[in-house]
Design goal:
This protein is an alpha/beta fold. Helices cover 47% and strands 15% of the residues. It has a seven-stranded mixed β-sheet with strand order 6-7-5-8-9-11-10, with helices on both faces. Strands 1-4-3-2 form a four-stranded antiparallel β-sheet. Bound molecules: guanosine-5'-triphosphate (GTP) and magnesium ion.
Length: 424
Amino acid sequence: MIRVSGPQAAAALARLTGRATPTARKATRVRLLAKDGELIDEGLALWFPAPASFTGEDVVELHVHGGKAVIGGVLEALACGEGLRPAEPGEFTRRAFELGKLDLTAAEGLADLVNAETASQRRLALRQLRGELGGLYDSWRNRLLRAVAHLEATIDFSDEELPGGIEEEIRGQVVALSGEIERHLADGHRGERLRDGIHLAIVGPPNAGKSSLLNVIARREAAIVSAQPGTTRDVVEVALDVGGYPVVIADTAGLRDTAEEVEKEGVRRARMRARDADLTLAVFDGGVWPAVDGLTMALLDDKAIAVVNKSDLGRLDRPVEVGGFPAKAVSALTGEGIDAMIGAVEQAVATRFDSQGTPALTRIRHRTALEECCRSLRRAATAEGVELVAEDLRRAARAVGRITGRVDVEEILDVIFRDFCIGK
Ligand SMILES: Nc1nc2c(ncn2[C@@H]2O[C@H](COP(=O)(O)OP(=O)(O)OP(=O)(O)O)[C@@H](O)[C@H]2O)c(=O)[nH]1
Ligand SMILES: [Mg+2]
């Protein structure tokens, strides 16, 4: 599909098809002609007069056969026209924003939708595109602006002209709103993780079969497997779709005290991964059962899923527990328990990073602005004097407004529309 947007759109269509503009918003069969009158293709044309179009300008969409020669021919024929040039990446969306068709969060949602690789990313992006996040932020901004207006009224009018207690009421509203924003911020980075990938680290003692499990989950030989303990040193990452969620699985070096320098660094990285991961898969070696590795046991916390590998060796007693922590018996060799283990990961991911529920912020940009907003609100809560409170609230409103693009937009625009050129 080739889109033309702007005041020259109708003229371009007329020149290309040799006929008058078709009925608005109805697919019309057209012949597309080169400058010298040669037929390039037959296709469909759609005419969207301003302002009811994607960009808000006059828009023509041409549906053509997608081959290189056809598209090249149509673009060449279009390029002959006055005032036409190829669009920059993201330019249609930028124009839509500038004409008020989208707010910035919706534009970001659109970029994310284009780049979505899993169902949960698609859902999240679509919700943002449809304005859930923008609507929430706008409602906060409106509440702040209303509070500022009320406070300013107390400055401009005498006490007799206004109902009493306005200041108190506004302080109450500020506290309530701070609470709402802080709860929104304390979401465990749900939206950011859904957008960028949830991190799962595979940790455990050497030779437990961590790399083997990664390969089974990834269905390819992503990491080297060998009977020699201490095989994996660097972190090996694989990005996967797990039950519709984007998950980055990291295989790590086996945990043990070692004097060997390279392995020591590997173990340090493994520990760092375990600490920073959203979830860990703590793998124990069923080949030495009932002995369990103490270093790995120390990592069993509420984000850990414990598994004991090599169930095929027949040493495990069921149900399997590691230090009172329920564990899954699996075998990377035979495949036993693997589906249940992946199911447990899916479930853990779905509970923590549920893509339904309240809208989630998806970018550090949102977080930074909301934190700034909260700081201003905290100042407002303790500020002395109506003028100072009003100034803090105005600052808070400005911070939220930056997220949707109601203010200070220029520097943000470039960041967002660049998403269209370089993927995420
Ligand atoms: N019997 C049996 N052997 C397994 C199983 N999984 C892995 N192994 C073997 O165990 C050995 C170690 O496997 P790896 O996957 O390399 O173990 P690792 O935990 O990554 O080891 P390091 O990288 O050294 O920390 C290899 O010889 C594997 O073939 C299993 O389920 N059953
Ligand atoms: Mg390994």
